[in-house]
Amino acid sequence: MNYFLLEKEERWNVLTHAIGFFIALICVPFLLTTAFQSSVLGGSSVLVFSLSLLFMLASSSLYHLQISPKAKERFQKLDHIAIFFLIAGTYTPFITFFVEAPLKFYYLGLMWGIAFIGTGIKFFSTGKLKYISTVAYLIMGWMVVFIGEPIVENLCTAGFTWLITGGVFYSVGTIFYLMKKMKYSHVVWHFFVLLGGLSHFIAVWYCLI
């Protein structure tokens, strides 16, 4: 089994997000059950968020599990693409619940448009655009500052606090993601990602209650 052939740090990278994946897999059905009781559109938006979170955790675990350099390169692209999907997927329920049409569809189109463009860049690039994609992640993540007025007005204080807290966790974690020379920096990044994902999971829950 590949896991036992990995270096210790890489084992931790696999373990952190694999555990996060299975915890999310257990919690997601409860969130979806409540979401679909509100409306089909609302439930569908929460489903998009849930799938994007699971996709990110699964692709990250699979990437770090690889030993073959070629396989690792392929799964790394998938791992990075999943981040675009996670950001867009996280925005989806908040925009769906709290932004009125037609602005709602404009924002969703903008967010998913960037995600698909980022996916194309990641899929076809040779790795030279890594820092550009990192900047794109942060820009997408903090677009809430520009499009968040209806979310701020309609989401309860606790929900908005968890939403911002998640963004802070992801942003601080990015510092460790970029510190390649620091031992276990990527493991630390993974923990910040888990905290960010948990915070946004709770924030989505507050959309529904």
TL;DR?
This protein is 85% helix and 0% strand. The chain is mainly alpha-helical and 209 residues long. The chain has a single domain (2-208), classed as Rhodopsin 7-helix transmembrane proteins (Rhopdopsin 7-helix transmembrane proteins, Up-down Bundle), CATH 1.20.1070.
What does this structure look like?
The chain has 209 residues and is mainly alpha-helical. The protein has one domain: Up-down Bundle (Rhopdopsin 7-helix transmembrane proteins). 85% of the residues lie in helices and 0% in strands. The chain is built from nine helices and no strands. Helix 1 packs antiparallel against helix 2 (40-65), helix 1 (8-38) runs parallel beside helix 9 and helix 8 (157-178) packs antiparallel against helix 9 (185-208). It is globular. The model has no long low-confidence stretch (mean pLDDT 89).
Labels describing this entry:
about 210 residues, mainly alpha, Rhopdopsin 7-helix transmembrane proteins, 9 helices, metal ion binding, zinc, Hemolysin III
Q: Helical element count?
A: 9
Structurally, the number of domains stands at 1
Tell me the major beta sheet. Answer: none
Shape annotation = globular
The CATH fourth-level homologous superfamily:
Rhodopsin 7-helix transmembrane proteins
